[in-house]
């Protein structure tokens, strides 16, 4: 009896992190098309400072797939994590594009949840809100 209880507890502890999400998080908005959100830069913020702030903000949590400073473009790799836990069935990605005049930053987030063999597209509201808040605090004057 003690041995079976120990085996069961071991299985729960080992598999727990892999099954942490029985469904998508509440912040996942299924089927929502990812849209660009704009952060207008304060007058005292130049492009180099803005680039560095965006870059530093993203690399805190994401690996970068592409960063082209001359074009003002950054895209992250997919992050298979939610709330600090690995989640193989949920992933997040961020794309950032500076406006041609370099006075604003456009931000887009993508989220996908694996349902069986298919990835369901959507948006994660928590990720979007967090990134917009972080960038507004560092660079912005208004958002739309």
Q: What's the number of domains?
A: 1
Low-confidence stretches: 1-20
Over the alpha carbons, how many angstroms does the gyration radius reach?
A: 19 Å
Helix content: 25-40%
Structural class: alpha+beta
How would you sum up the global shape? elongated
Number of helices: 3
Task: Tally the beta strands.
Answer: 10
Quick recap of the structure?
The protein is an alpha+beta fold and 144 residues long. It is 28% helix and 37% strand. It has helices spanning 2-15, 47-59, 125-138; strands at 28-30, 37-41, 64-68, 73-76, 81-82, 85-86, 90-98, 104-115, 118-124, 140-143.
Description of the structure:
The chain is of the alpha+beta class. The protein is built from three helices and ten strands. α2 (47-59) packs antiparallel against α3 (125-138). The longest helix has 14 residues, at 2-15.
List its traits:
144 residues; alpha+beta; TATA-Binding Protein; two-stranded antiparallel sheet; 3 helices; 10 strands; elongated; disordered N terminus
Topology (SSEs and partners):
Elements: H1 2-15, E1 28-30, E2 37-41, H2 47-59, E3 64-68, E4 73-76, E5 81-82, E6 85-86, E7 90-98, E8 104-115, E9 118-124, H3 125-138, E10 140-143
Antiparallel strand pairs: 1-9, 2-8, 2-10, 3-4, 4-7, 5-6, 7-8, 8-9
Helix pairs in contact: 2-3
């Amino acid at each position: 009896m003690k041995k079976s209880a120990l085996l069961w507890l071991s299985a729960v502890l080992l598999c727990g992190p892999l099954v942490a999400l029985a469904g998508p998080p509440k912040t996942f908005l299924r089927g929502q098309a990812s849209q660009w959100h704009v952060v207008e830069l304060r007058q005292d913020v130049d492009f180099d400072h803005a680039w560095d702030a965006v870059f530093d903000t993203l690399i805190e949590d994401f690996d970068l797939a592409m960063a082209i400073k001359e074009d003002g473009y950054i895209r992250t790799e997919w992050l298979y994590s939610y709330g600090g836990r690995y989640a193989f069935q949920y992933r997040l990605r961020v794309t950032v594009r500076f406006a041609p005049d370099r006075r604003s930053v456009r931000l887009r987030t993508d989220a996908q949840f694996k349902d069986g063999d298919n990835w369901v597209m959507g948006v994660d509201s928590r990720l979007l809100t967090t990134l917009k808040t972080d960038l507004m605090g560092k660079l912005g004057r208004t958002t739309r």
